[in-house]
Design a protein that fits this description.
This protein has helices at residues 12-25, 32-49, 70-75, 90-103, 108-115, 119-127, 135-142, 171-174; strands at residues 60-63, 66-68, 132-133, 178-181, 187-190. The protein has 204 residues and is mainly α.
Length: 204
């Protein structure tokens, strides 16, 4: 069940800009398709980590290339729009930083191929191309993965006869503490405080 609490980030554009800036800082041009895969994974793993709470007020559809946020796609179609920078919470930055460190090393093609085999996308596409991928489906799949238990995958619904062996990492291997420095320069792991589940966000 998804939460009715406010998302960790006010605008989906802020998340897109965070990934674009992080890629530039690392010397990479972030391809649009890779951006959308990263945003989708960030939304999914955030919902698992925060009892169904969304990272951003986004909707993802099952496009032929993979999960797509249509509002970001249209807004960034020709060029990156100017949007004032806002300060994000530590919880939001921890999710984004973790997703970039875990998945940012992969190409757009690899991420697209992998995510298309995950049930949230595969089942939405099978229902009807460009159907909405629900947060409930994201949490149900990404939340059941454990380091010692491989996930149940589906054939790539957009490519007949293609059978790739892929992985969907467990939450524990994706969301890592943010490493900050003390006044003496020593590394300090910072994990945001996450409240226990409430009735309105699917917790017990």
């Amino acid at each position: 069940m998804t939460s009715t609490r406010p998302p960790l980030v006010d605008s989906t554009f802020d998340v897109a800009n965070w990934f674009l800036d992080r890629a530039l800082n690392d010397g990479e041009y972030l391809q649009p398709q890779k951006l959308h895969r990263l945003m989708f994974l960030a939304q999914a793993y955030c919902a698992v980590a925060h009892n169904g709470r969304r990272l951003m007020p986004a909707v993802f559809i099952a496009d032929a290339m993979g999960p797509l946020e249509p509002n970001v796609y249209r807004a960034f179609e020709n060029e990156r729009p100017w949007i004032s920078e806002v300060k994000m919470s530590e919880a939001a930055k921890q999710v984004l930083d973790s997703i970039w460190r875990r998945f940012g090393v992969h190409s757009a093609e690899h991420l697209s191929r992998v995510v298309r085999r995950h049930p949230p996308f595969a089942e939405a596409w099978a229902s009807e191309p460009r159907s909405v991928i629900t947060e409930e489906a994201m949490v149900a799949f990404y939340g059941q993965i454990r380091p010692d238990r491989p996930p149940v995958l589906r054939p790539d619904p957009t490519a007949e006869g293609v059978d790739h062996t892929v992985e969907a990492p467990a939450l524990e291997t994706v969301l890592r503490p943010r490493v900050m420095r003390s006044h003496k320069g020593r590394p300090v792991n910072v994990m945001p405080w996450v409240p226990k589940g409430r009735k309105d966000d699917g917790g017990t």
